[in-house]
Specification:
About 35% of the residues lie in helices and about 25% in strands. It is an alpha/beta fold. It has two domains: about 5-170, 3-Layer(aba) Sandwich (Rossmann fold); about 185-290, 2-Layer Sandwich (GMP Synthetase, Chain A, domain 3), CATH 3.30.300.20. Helix 6 (about 185-200) runs antiparallel to helix 8. The structure holds guanosine-5'-triphosphate and magnesium ion (MG).
């Protein structure tokens, strides 16, 4: 039989588990995850290759009403991902139920050309009634071809989902080498790792206003990599929280990020973190460009 391949966009409200699911599908962490909404800010590609077929997943920012220029960008990224894909995977959170954000997205998806498969995620957290009421709502939409109960965290339903998605693949090229799981350069992944640790360790408000720039990566002769990064925040008060008492918070973020980077790069890492205040940077075109949101 001929080789089959295709692109699948993963779309949904913030925090429903899109990135967790994509990482699970491709078998490696390529997209950062946190319990805060709006963790993913860009389109993150994840490749799943098996003998005879390849699925290229596009993880996207959670769809919500934008509050600033960065939000406008994120929404555009999410909606743009719906074009030129072989299938769309709509993810909802069974525990939270189908809310206004999901309803708005369902409206949008009515216009989509690609077939839509829905995943009811976080099944491990909720009752059968929760799942049934989400299913009932989704079944009302004729454009939804199939509904699958999932736990991205535990891996439940993921095999069935993969099988379903492969039926939408078309005869086509192997887009990426078999051992490639993402198109993100190491520099970008390193920045994302720092942002993830900050999201995981800090409270609401502060982490949402953070942006990370990897300024330089240099390899020493003995293999150690020196990495210089700047974390931008929006207010002086946020800078204080980010640095923490006697630098404790920044140190924690740095230590945890360094461990992940060492795993990623397969070498020892010396990470130098700087913190800078850039007021309202999420509305600044030049800052958005500098941080890769353009
Ligand atoms: N219990 C449970 N938690 C889950 C599951 N999937 C994701 N989570 C958790 O839900 C939170 C959000 O996960 P993400 O994967 O970052 O969600 P997302 O949809 O990518 O979020 P944004 O990028 O902000 O739109 C994290 O705390 C995950 O650990 C699941 O199946 N079960
Ligand atoms: Mg995400």
């Amino acid at each position: 039989m001929s080789y089959r391949s295709g692109f699948v966009s993963i779309i949904g409200s913030p925090n429903v588990g899109k990135s967790t699911l994509m990482n699970r599908l491709v078998g490696q962490k390529v997209s950062i995850v946190s319990d805060k909404a709006q963790t993913t800010r860009n389109r993150i590609m994840g490749v799943m290759s098996r003998p005879g077929w390849q699925i290229v997943f596009l993880d996207t920012p959670g769809v919500t009403t934008p509050k600033n220029r960065l939000g406008d960008y994120m929404l555009r990224v999410a909606y743009d991902s719906l074009n030129e894909v072989e299938a769309i995977l709509l993810l909802v959170d069974a525990k939270r139920g189908i809310g206004p954000k999901d309803e708005a997205l369902l409206n949008k998806l009515r216009e989509a050309k690609a077939p839509v498969v829905a995943g009811i995620n976080k099944a491990d957290l909720c009752t059968l009634d929760d799942i049934e009421s989400a299913r009932e709502r989704l079944e009302k939409e004729p454009f939804i071809r199939q509904i699958i109960k999932l736990s991205a965290l535990e891996g439940r339903g993921v095999e069935q989902l993969t099988e379903t998605l492969t039926t939408y693949l078309v005869e086509g090229p192997q887009y990426f080498p078999e051992d490639m799981v993402t198109d993100q350069p190491e520099r970008v992944i390193c920045g994302e790792i720092i942002r993830e640790k900050a999201l995981q360790l800090l409270r609401e408000e502060v982490p949402h206003g953070l942006g990370v720039c990897i300024d330089k990566i240099e390899a020493r002769e003995d293999g150690v990599q020196d990495i210089w990064a700047t974390i931008y925040c929006e207010r002086a008060s946020h800078k204080g929280i980010l640095i923490g008492r006697q630098g404790a918070m920044l140190k924690r973020i740095g230590t945890e990020a360094r461990k992940d980077m060492e795993w990623l790069l397969g070498s020892r890492v010396n990470l130098q973190l700087w913190v800078k205040v850039k007021e309202d940077w999420r509305n600044s075109a030049s800052m958005l460009g500098e941080l890769g949101y353009e």
